Amino acid sequence: MRFVDEFRNQAIARDVAAEIEHLVEPGRQYRFMEVCGGHTHTIYKHGVEDYLPPAITLVHGPGCPVCVIPMGRIDDAIHIARQPGVLLATFGDMLRVPGGHGSFLDANALGADVRMVYSPMDALRLAKRNPDRRVVFMAIGFETTAPSTALTLLQAEREAVDNFAVFCNHVTIVPAIKAILDSPDLRLDGFLGPGHVSTAIGCRPYEFIANNYRRPVVVAGFEPLDILQSIHMLLRQLAEGRCEVENQYKRVVGREGNRNSLDAIRTTMELRPYFEWRGLGFISHSALKLRDAYARFDAERIFEIPGVRVADPKACQCGEVLKGVLKPWQCKVFGTACTPETPIGTCMVSSEGACAAYYNFGRFTRIHTQEAVR
Amino acid sequence: MTEQQVLERIEHARRAKAVLREERITMAHGAGGKASRTLVDAVFLEAFRNPLLEPLEDQAVFELNGTRFALTTDSFVVSPLFFPGGNVGDLAVNGTVNDLAVCGARPLYLTAGFILEEGFPTADLKRIAHSMAEAAAAAGVAIVAGDTKVVPRGKADGCFINTSGVGVLAADPPLRASRVTPGDAILVSGPIGDHGTSILLARGELDLVSDLRSDTAPLWDLVQTMLQAAPGIHAMRDATRGGVATVLNEIATSAGVAMTIDETAIPVRREVRGACEILGIDPLYVACEGRLVAFVDAAVAPAILSAMHAHPLGQHAAIIGKVNAAPSGMVLVRTQFGGTRIVDLLVGDPLPRIC
Amino acid sequence: MCLAIPAQIVRLLPESDLATADVSGVQRTVNVALLSDHNLAVGDWVLIHVGFAISKVDEVEARTSLEFLESMGQAYRDEIDALMQSEAEEGSG
Predict the structure, then answer these.
(1) How far apart are CA B134 and CA B126, in angstroms?
(2) Cβ proximity of A253 and A245 under 8 Å
């Protein structure tokens, strides 16, 4: 597959790994946060850590939009799904996320109609094909996905699809990164920046990380070689005493982002004053809601949602994992009470959650896997 | 707690007795992964427990008056009923035939029970029956008993088919998971994921278009060819619901062995790969309906492979990995990139990711 | 973050916001409105995400990235070779 396989090349990987070893200062430990859930998934799926020396630790960040949805919002969505005539359309990742009283799949077992879609446009099409139902699209994702929801709203408006609505849970990445940087208990030496969010917002929004917080940033692609190269670029910045925002993912990300994407978002949505993030608490101006002009498509205005704040189960340490303070296996319930079959928190359910990635793919340490493979 | 201690805790939990916590059945229970296994263990094995059932192979093997028989049952609830490469009828015949074939039994007789939804077109039923007749003839079996029930509109999705199948053991000893040994080579008979991907695309909900067809096919002839090529075949499974990954995990757990797979050795059609990349699914978990996974003595693997290559259903057969002694119950993949990852059972259906 | 995959435009559809994109022989209709500034043509590569093209794939940049990656290894090997060479010369002196 073009633009994919070339960036999974083993021989090049070994060379880059050697370069990385070369750049590591003897006796120094490096902690780099990879913000995106997509990066976490790639790292474990391809075994990228097998190429890194023990001095480098990759810390998983909060860039998994499924993981950061608080349980109360799931309950709100299920409440909507259970209203008469409602068909809730959602991305596949969301189906097993536990709310306070079960997941979407459990709600289906009790008679709700929650269906999986690949695209918000599929949800709009469902609305057109089922005029007697009210189709609500559960919109999640960072700035990568928000433009797609926005364009879908614009189309719904153009075509006057009155039975279509959006339950908007889009969040923005920069406030989450800032919350991480302001965390007292976290030591990080650099960031692998979110590659696909950057196709929309460009690279400039991360300059505050380098300028104000003095941490280097490399906007990174999602193939395993992209990640290795980005780590190499971070190490070079540190070795050369530089602190800037670099772009490793140039084949897809431009410095200025995509004006069409930002315009689409701005036309249809605006920032909420604050929003609750699982594990990170309330963050101001970190999430989007539909503008008044689109009120008739806004599920929050059409339905009276309970809006009850549900505290995470006492045992759940998703918050600390999302902030990178804990590694998945350090969570008290990891692997025992909280497993992919019986998830307590989102980090274990989402296929990009750090806990799910570690449990499903990376459970053995590098040493173990090398022994097993010999 | 150290990482090592956590891993040991997990392994201990994995081996613990299955507990069914859910009050209601969800779709995850039908996907062939962890939830399915827990359901079977906690409900059916608990209730029916007996020595013939306990191995939880695809078929039961027993002896009557000196002849060894294999007996199996299966149900087919595929949607859509008609798809590129076949229909529910083909699946019903081939699926049952294959459940018998993979323990080394020659399939002989099938039964077919139909649960029909009020309003289902009789023309479609005729098409299905006709396909079953053709598939049965091609597989060398006869459908010798059946049943028909009709339920009100909305209580069944068109046409559900349940089958049972009986065959006579030709392999001695029978192919069983318990015979898999460290050092065995792992073979797959052809490209994986064709069926599941075709079905997903045929449903039309994801709006993906390709030339992919289901790989549904009867495997007894191929199995027989392999058995005749050399002794030393220890076990076989047909990779259906849950894909090759599920077969590997089931055998690893059952036989108490580990496995290492080479990602680049696994045959996958480019369209299956493309669809799976778009949806974020791993082809290893996608259903096949005409592929088998075989565990054979490493010494005879080349001979078996040659025999497979000479057979129409085995042209793209490949050795994809080997069985190790430890870590017990674990399936590892050496990735295209050169790293290593675990391939565990999924809980439910592989769900397309967005991010 | 978010699953996005490179796909090739094989057809531009008359309703100008849509195109057919191909990934290894699997095709899907995608919305290309976000790339209206790019004058998309058949044969171009785009990044698709939930049914939308969110960015164009710059083939030149991709090639440059790969060449740089390939050269990284070469530079390192050259350095090692030079090191071994100089050690050999010292040893024989």
Answers:
(1) 12
(2) no
Please tell me which of the candidates B206, B337, B355 has its beta carbon nearest to residue A13: B337
**Separation CA B236–CA B105 (nearest Å):** 11
By the 8 A CB rule, do B229 and B354 touch?
no
- For residue range B247-264, list pLDDT tens digits in order: 999 999 999 999 999 999
Report yes or no: B91 and B84 within 8 Å, Cβ to Cβ.
no
Q: Tokens 């096949």 correspond to what residue? A: B288
Chain position carrying tokens 């057109």:
A128
Helix, strand and coil content of chain A, in percent to the nearest 5, comes to 45, 20, 40
Total residues found in chain C within this entry = 93
Contact A203, A193 (CB under 8 A): yes
d(CA A109, CA B152): 20
Closest to B212 in 3D by CA, of B317, B85, B352: B85
| Ramachandran bin of A86, using left for φ above 0, alpha for ψ from -120 to 50, beta for the remaining angles | beta
Q: Give the pLDDT confidence score for residue C90 in this predicted structure.
A: 59
Closest among C29, A234, A303 to B207, alpha carbons compared: C29
Element (H or E) spanning B259, and its range? Answer: strand B258-262
Chain B residue with the nearest C-alpha to that of C27: B209
Rounded-to-integer distance, Cα B65 and Cα B63, Å: 7
- For chain A, list the contacting chains (3+ Cβ pairs, <8 Å): B, C
Q: Which subunits count as partners of chain C given 3+ CB pairs below 8 Å?
A: A, B
Q: What's the CA gap between A162 and B154, in Å, rounded?
A: 28
Distance, in Å, from the CA atom of A272 to the CA atom of A73, rounded to the nearest integer, reads 15
Q: CA-to-CA distance for B296 and B229, rounded, in angstroms?
A: 12
Chain A residue closest in CA terms to B13: A336
Question: Among candidates A97, A57, A131, A73, which has minimal Cα distance to A327?
Answer: A57
Positive or negative: CA dihedral A45, A46, A49, A50: positive
* Residues B306, A48: Cα–Cα separation, whole Å: 35
Cβ count within 10 A of residue C37: 10
Q: What residues are paired with B109 via a beta bridge?
A: B142, B166
pLDDT at A370: 42
Q: Structure tokens of A80? A: 């909507």
Residues of chain B contacting residue C19, judged by C-beta atoms under 8 Å apart: none
Check if the beta carbon of residue C40 is closer than 8 Å to that of residue C46.
yes
User: Using one digit for the tens of pLDDT, what is the confidence trace for B312-341?
Assistant: 999 999 999 999 998 889 999 999 999 988
Query: What residue ranges of chain C have pLDDT lower than 50?
Result: 1, 92-93
Q: Which of the four pLDDT bands, split at 50, 70 and 90, describes residue B200?
A: confident
What pLDDT digit, counting tens, does each position of A61-88 carry? 888 898 889 999 999 999 999 999 999 9
Strand partners, A191: A33, A217
**Mean pLDDT across chain B:** 91
How does DSSP classify residue B338? S
Distance, first Cα to last Cα, chain C? 56
Nearest 10 degrees: Cα torsion B227, B230, B231, B236:
-40
Chain C CA closest to residue A36: C1
H or E stretch including A225? helix A224-239
